[in-house]
């Protein structure tokens, strides 16, 4: 086949209104989690994002849509500094959100 300099990728489309079990669980433990409007302020101000590819907004989305395997190790880069919580316009408790994501992923790995 002729090489055009790019490859077709598997679709990354997901439906924003579909709620997964990890999404429900996290919402129960950190209710403000559902207030996120994906503005990106947290990622824009993140200390870890300044020095690494860490992107809390992306991980938030992946977690909601059941794609935890992609963020299992990445979340360790968060230093829990809390800057993201300070700038969040919707009052999302982002540090608690990250801690619960880590707990969920740890529990999943322990049962695997
Ligand atoms: S700053 Fe708050 S509302 Fe904006 S993407 Fe981050 S968690 Fe969501
Ligand atoms: S608590 Fe974590 S995600 Fe939030 S700004 Fe600090 S390093 Fe980034």
Architecture overview:
The structure is a single chain. This protein is mainly α and 112 residues long. The protein is 46% helix and 0% strand. It is built from six helices and no strands. It has helices at 21-29, 41-45, 47-51, 56-64, 83-87, 94-111. The longest helix has 18 residues, at 94-111. Bound molecules: iron/sulfur cluster (SF4) (2 copies). One iron/sulfur cluster binds next to α2.
What ions, cofactors and ligands are bound? Answer: iron/sulfur cluster
CATH superfamily: Alpha-helical ferredoxin
Shape, principal axes of CA atoms: globular
Poorly predicted segments: none
- Largest pleated sheet: none
The CATH topology label is Fumarate Reductase Iron-sulfur Protein, Chain B, domain 2
Core attributes:
mainly alpha, binds iron/sulfur cluster, Fumarate Reductase Iron-sulfur Protein, Chain B, domain 2, 112 residues, globular
Element layout with pairings:
Elements: H1 21-29, H2 41-45, H3 47-51, H4 56-64, H5 83-87, H6 94-111
The protein binds iron/sulfur cluster (2 copies).
The site of one iron/sulfur cluster (SF4) has 13 residues, from helix 2.
Provide a concise account of the structure shown.
The protein has 112 residues and is mostly helical. The protein has helices at residues 21-29, 41-45, 47-51, 56-64, 83-87, 94-111.
């Amino acid at each position: 086949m002729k090489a055009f300099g790019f490859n077709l990728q598997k679709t990354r489309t997901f439906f924003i209104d579909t709620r997964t079990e990890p999404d429900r669980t996290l919402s129960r433990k950190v209710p403000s989690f559902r207030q996120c409007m994906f503005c990106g302020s947290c990622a824009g101000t993140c200390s870890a994002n300044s020095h690494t590819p860490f992107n809390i907004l992306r991980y938030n989305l992946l977690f909601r849509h059941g794609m935890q395997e992609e963020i299992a190790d990445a979340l360790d880069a968060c230093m829990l500094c809390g800057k993201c919580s300070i700038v969040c316009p919707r009052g999302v408790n982002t540090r608690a959100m990250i801690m619960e994501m880590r707990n969920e992923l740890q529990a999943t790995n322990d049962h695997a």
